Amino acid sequence: MRAGFLIKFFKIISFSNNGVWNDFLGPLLYLNDESLYTLQLGLQVFKEQSSTRWNYLMAGSLLVLMPVIILFFFFQKYFIQGSNILGQTDEK
Predict the structure, then answer these.
(1) pLDDT tens for residues 34-60?
(2) Average pLDDT in the 57-64 region?
(3) What's the rounded Cα separation, in Å, for the pair 85 and 83?
(4) What is the rounded distance in angstroms from the CA atom of residue 71 to the CA atom of residue 83?
(5) Most buried one in 10, 29, 56, 73, CB count within 10 A?
(6) pLDDT of residue 62
(7) Contact 66, 74 (CB under 8 A)
(8) How far is CA 89 from CA 18, 37, 83, 84, 92, in A?
(9) 49-67 burial string, b = 16+ CB within 10 Å, else e?
């Protein structure tokens, strides 16, 4: 019972963390100072410059995505276990 709870807990934490990390609209509405912009807003400002350097934009996008990928690899075991537990039925 406890293992199932921990797996679900880690899944909820990771999904909510991903949602907060990738939030674009909230900081866009609330922040006025460009020095306080999040990484996603910084990439958007960089893209809106007169001549976009796409290689730098793609490198920045990869750097923004790296923490999410690293967290997924660390907690991949819990994702797979959670999927297996949710798909099982108690047939006796």
Answers:
(1) 888 888 888 888 888 868 888 998 999
(2) 91
(3) 6
(4) 17
(5) 10
(6) 92
(7) no
(8) 29, 47, 12, 10, 9
(9) eeeeeeeeeeebeeebeee
Alpha-helical (H) ranges within the chain are 2-21, 25-30, 39-47, 54-74, 76-87
Mean pLDDT of 15-24: 80
| Owner of token pair 């660390």 | 74
pLDDT greater than 80 at residue 84: no
Does 81 or 69 have the greater pLDDT score? Answer: 69
Entry field: residues in the chain: 92
| Placement of tokens 């995505």 in the chain | 65
